[in-house]
Every structure is written in C-alpha cells, then in structure tokens.
Amino acid sequence: MQIEKYKIADNNDKQIAAHKRAFGFVSEGVNNVEEVLQKLKDFQVAIPSWALGTGGTRFGRFSGGGEPRSLEEKIEDIGLLHALNQSSGAISLHIPWDIPENYANIKALAAQNGLRFDAMNSNTFQDQPGQEHSYKFGSLQHVDKAVRQQAIDHNIEVIRHGIELGSDSLTVWLSDGSSFPGQLNFRKAHQRTLEGLQEIYKALPDNWKMFVEYKAFEPNFYSMTVGDWGQSFLYANKLGDKAYTLVDLGHHLPNANIEQIVALLLGEGKLGGFHFNDSKYGDDDLTVGSINPYQLFLIFNELVEGMDARGMNHATGLGWMIDASHNIKDPLEDLLQSVEAIKIAYAQALLVDTKALQQAQTDNDIVKAQEILQHAYRTDVRPIVAEARLRSGGALSPLSVYRGEKVREQLIKSRGQKAVSTGL
Ligand code: PSV
Ligand code: MN
Ligand code: MN
Predict the structure, then answer these.
(1) Which atom of ligand 1 is nearest to the CA of 248?
(2) Burial, 194: exposed, middle or buried (Cβ in 10 Å; 0-12, 13-18, 19+)?
(3) Which residue's alpha carbon is at the smallest distance from atom 11 of ligand 1?
(4) Rounded to two decimals, what is the model's pTM?
(5) Which of 140, 143, 261, 337 could disulfide-link to 196, CB 3.0 to 4.6 Å?
(6) What is the residue extent of each domain of the chain?
(7) ipTM of this model?
(8) d(Cα 408, Cα 148) in Å, to the nearest integer?
(9) Ligand 1 atom nearest to 121, measured from its CA
C-alpha cells in the first residue's frame, strides 16, 4: 500500500496553524535555525529489514498481523515510513533472511520508494537448513577450519549481494564466545577470528567499509570474542583503513559511558556507525529514546562535536541505523517513534553552544558546562524537527497520519492476520 501525498498534505493543513506558532516560538531562541533545519533534512536513518515484524522473546511471540512476507513487502513498509517522515531513506538487509530473487526488480522497487541500501549484515549465529557445518560452538573462532571457512564464504557471499544492490558496507556481528570457563582458549579464539576477518576484509571492494560490531553478552554468557569496543577497535586497526567499530547502544555492560566510547572512537577515526535502540537491562532492543533519552542526547553531543572537529558530514560520515525489536508494539509505529527520538536528540545536540561549552571547560566551570548542555536538552525541539519534515514533504505528525489512514488494518487486510516476517 501507499500513502497518497494529498492525505499527508490534508493532515498537515489541519495542524499547520498550531505548528507555525510553536515553530516561531522555539526558533526565536535559535540563531542558526536554517542551518539546523538543513542538517535535519539531510539526516537519514536506515531501517533494518528484520525490525518490521514482531520480534518476540524466547518465551513467546505475539504477532500483530500484516507483517511483510517478503523482501518486497519489507521495502514497501519502509517506503511507508519514509513517505511519512522523510528520514528513513535506507534499508539494511540481513542475509540469508533477505536474499533477493531478482536484483534489478529489488533495486527498482527500492528506488521507487526513495530508498538506498545501507550496510549488509551477515549471519553466522544461526544454522540454516541444509548448511554443512554448525555454528553451535562459534563461527570465525571455531576450532574446526571447515566451520571457519564456511563463515568466511558466507560473508563474502553477503558482500556479493551487496555489490549487486549498490550497498557499500558490511556489518559483521559474531555471536562467538563461550558460556563456561575453560570452554575456550581466549587467545587462540581471538587469533582465529582475526584471521577470518582478514579473509573477509580482502573481499571488500575499494569503496566499501567493514563494521565490526561488538557485544558484551548473549548468546554467550561467559565470554564474547568481540565483546567490547576495545576488542572491536583492535580488529579494526589490524584489518586496515576500511574497517571500523560499530556501536550498538544495547551491547554494553550496565552503566557503560557510551558517549565517552563514541568520542574516543571518533577521535581515532575508527567509529563506523550505530545501531540505535534503548535498554534498561541488557540488549533490550527497545524503542530509541524510550528509557534514557538524556544518554542519547549526550551521545549526539559527542558525535556533533567530534564530527565537526574532523570536518565530517553528519549525514554521510557514519552509518546510522536502528536495531530494535518490537514485541508488543506495532513495529511501524515503534520505528516512527525511534526515528523521531533520534532526530530530536540530534537537533538538541545541534543547539549546544559549543564555543561557550569549550570556554566553560577551559575555565573548569562545571556548573556552566552543565547549564549549557541541559539548556539544549531541555529545549523542546519537536517543532524544529517537524518543520524539517514538512519542508521535505513529510507529515507534521507521522503517527497521526499512520493511525488516521488505518495503515496496519489495511496491511492485515492485504497480507493476513498471520503474516510473519523473517528475522529474530
Ligand atoms: C545482535 O544482538 C544484533 O544487534 C546484531 O546487530 C545482529 O545482526 C542483530 O542484532 C540481529 O537481530
Ligand atoms: Mn546490532
Ligand atoms: Mn543486539
């Protein structure tokens, strides 16, 4: 299904007067509002193909119905999001969940929906039907060379799919590790993994990037072979200029200072991209900004400062993606909320008076520094984000159009109540 442009325009008309008042009020206090608007318009967040269905937990899965049954329908769903918010202009595929049957058709459909192909993701954490060797005891770390080779070959195949589609990056997340002391020789597992990553790296086209994603726990609960940013950074450095660390917000030990990690990686030129989500306990994969929006703002504050210091383009310098799982919400509504939360945090970070903050830091004026940050954080930037969306042709209130047009009901009608998407 598609949302007609006039329906978005009609809904905007109903809200325009109130919006103009709110936008006028907030923009009076922002001296570079046009610059902020342009940056917000340029900023796109990729949607993972696996987040369009109900994720569930290991205890159960409660499908909301109308889930996309094919890659084509996943692209259509993201097209709906993008039509509403003009900020979800990319899709990230996971192989083998999303193997395209016909590259030209898939590319054409993505283009019709205004989408490009973001990072490709490989999967060596599940066994697929007909697969020769099992990943039960790891993939690139495995003691058996044949298993390692199978994982390397799979990653190279993923790169090939990506080349056909016009993607330019590969994200490697390994579930490798151990669940019990004594199970693994850490040093050897690290070395074997490095060698495997090097083989994959060799297959990367010149213009591609490779993102090494780390995770502190799950599915292994004693050790993870790429368990933290230090291990990922080590791999990325040894691999070469095309390799970077990828930060998934849910992959840290509790209370980790993620903004500091981000600042250091960015300073070293080794931050590649993000998987946004939110969490209270572990890799909860909750809606971005639903638990700790201040942390998200502090991360964006480091990103904006660090990228500006390095002369990087905010929109294209790093890979921006959501990696969330929806258990009890409508996935499309959840994704609209996540993209909005990201843009709010980004807009707030753009409002930080960097010069004044640096002066406060030089003066060791901690109170002033906090005031500067919190002034930006406590500014209600929602009208600025909405204005950017309006100027891009999107909806002032994407959620109200989504609900008003009864999108989920229509998807259930056309795809069925029991339609189940691929993914975790
Ligand atoms: C692992 O928890 C992860 O964050 C990786 O990015 C995977 O590719 C993704 O989730 C799979 O759902
Ligand atoms: Mn992730
Ligand atoms: Mn995760």
Answers:
(1) 4
(2) middle
(3) 424
(4) 0.97
(5) 140
(6) 5-415
(7) 0.99
(8) 42
(9) 8
